[in-house]
Predict the 3D structure of the following.
Amino acid sequence: MSQFYINKSGSTIRVYNSTDSSRIQIGTLANREAFSEIGSEGDFSAIKFLGKNGLANGYLINAPVATFTPCTDYPYESVKIGGTTYKAFKFRRNSNIYTVDGTYWGKVASGRRVACLTALAGSSHPEWKAINYVENTNGGWIEVFDDKLRYGFVDTGLSIGSGPSSISMYGTW
């Protein structure tokens, strides 16, 4: 599975189209910009990021360790639900929620939060973040689940914005 990260390296990181000698820079990750790592091997990391023409795949080469800071290190806040402490993120705009198999489940409303335990992101949709709960418009928490698994995914809005003031799902990064 993928992981949803924040570039907390303090630097702009170059993104390339490949890992071989013919590689061409296709974009950058600014400091505090969100992205998903979809795989890695040695010094190479395959990522999904917001490129100049929308969501794009690319590669980071020898990126500093702090580039791969889990989003859960900088949540909007921590919340206790049923005796367990979760990392919560707030939403700037309405966003769709899906079950693990990608079936539409519902929405998180603008100004409301989702809660999760890890930085897990989707395999088929690395721009979707795994969540356990969504806050309803009355401020109550609703568990997100399907028939088998006790979590789902929310569209983070990475296709719209990836910076701390433009992405739909935000924390304190």
